[in-house]
Design goal:
Length: about 350
């Protein structure tokens, strides 16, 4: 009697798993219509119905899969909650644990992409990488806890231990141990280097490069930390630098010419300065010592220039004044011409006096 029952049970099992392969018998499996599936381990692919081309290895891996296809799960509880998600690869303890409809995800490492439910096209490699991602898509994380807290963020790339660990923003790129670790809701940031950080948790479009370099403002680039003393462009081979405005706190040494754009076609409302000598006489050249380094200098005071030619004085965010020294050139030209005219008149008067004698 016992032998008869055993034969019936085995016949039923072979029919149920037609065109599938199970190396660990699960007599309670409900798998019926799915084909070309491979299951190894207790309760693997337990509820699979129409899913095809799946491979599961490990206790409860792909346990709840019903219609998902072409998934590969290796590890205890890997892809356990998957229902209809397809083309996923999970390798590691509880990797892609909560995924149910997300597709085209790849997780390698303990708890990687653990919370992912519907997110697609994510790649996580490392312990707890992209662990809390739920619906975020097109993210790539490589390293221990890389992009760990990302939930909804998209198009992020993190490489390195805890890189972008607290991120929830979009389109950020971090490479290096704890790079952009402090970023939370910031977007469009790029950081390369050990502990390269943005200036704020909600920073935007900051590019930070170098060991422990820190961003300074949105839409800006920082090269190196406070200990960097030189930046070479093109290995100092004469590479061109294109930029808008610039601000320097130290000396500038230029080996070539300083050329300033001055084409008339770029200007409007052009008028002559006229007489400038009288105003120029109100300005006095000074010698002074800089407070920053104690060096002796020669120049003018911005406040003096501001009283006479306010157009040549600008103010920064700290309300410090700066002088456009180049703008003094046309003033000097007109003053020189005015003075030359006076000298010419004096020469003419002198000639007349000599003639009259």
């Amino acid at each position: 009697m016992k032998s008869y029952i055993a034969i019936i049970a085995m016949t039923t099992l072979l029919y149920t798993n037609a065109q599938n392969h199970r190396s660990s018998v699960d007599p309670t499996s409900t798998s019926m219509n799915g084909q070309n599936n491979t299951a190894t381990g207790y309760f693997t692919l337990h509820y699979n119905n129409t899913g095809v081309g799946n491979s599961a290895t490990g206790i409860y891996s792909l346990h709840n899969n019903i219609s998902g296809s072409y998934n590969s799960a290796i590890g205890y509880h890997s892809l356990i909650s998957n229902i209809s998600g397809s083309y996923n690869t999970a390798n590691g303890y509880q990797s892609l644990y909560y995924n149910n409809m997300g597709s085209y995800n790849t997780a390698s490492g303990n708890s990687s992409l653990l919370k992912n439910t519907t997110g697609v096209y994510n790649t996580a490699s490392g312990y707890m990488a992209l662990m809390y991602n739920t619906t975020g898509a097109f993210n790539t994380a490589s390293g221990n806890q890389a992009l760990n807290s990302n939930i909804l963020g998209n198009y992020n790339t993190a490489t390195g231990n805890m890189a972008l660990c607290n991120n929830t923003g979009n389109m950020n790129t971090a490479s290096g141990n704890q790079a952009l670790y402090n970023n939370t809701t910031g977007n469009y940031n790029t950081a390369f280097g050990y502990k390269a950080m943005a200036s704020a948790v909600d920073a935007t479009n900051q590019t930070v490069i170098g060991y422990e370099a820190t961003g300074q403002a949105d839409n800006s680039v920082v090269l190196g930390n406070e200990n960097v003393t030189a930046v070479y462009m093109g290995e100092d081979s004469g590479a061109k630098i294109y930029a808008g405005e610039g601000s320097f706190t130290g000396n500038i040494t230029i080996g070539g010419d300083v050329v300033v754009s001055s084409d008339a076609r770029l200007k409007a409302n052009i008028m002559s300065l006229g007489s400038t000598l009288a105003k120029l006489m109100l300005i006095d050249g000074k010698t002074y010592t800089t407070r920053r380094d104690g060096k002796q200098k020669i120049g003018v005071l911005a406040q003096d220039i501001q009283n006479v030619f306010p157009e040549l004085v600008s103010q920064d965010d700290d309300k410090m004044l700066a002088v456009n020294y180049q703008g003094l050139i046309p003033i000097l030209i007109n003053a020189l011409k005015e003075q030359d005219a006076k000298i010419s008149r004096l020469e003419q008067l002198t000639k007349e006096l000599i003639t009259n004698e």
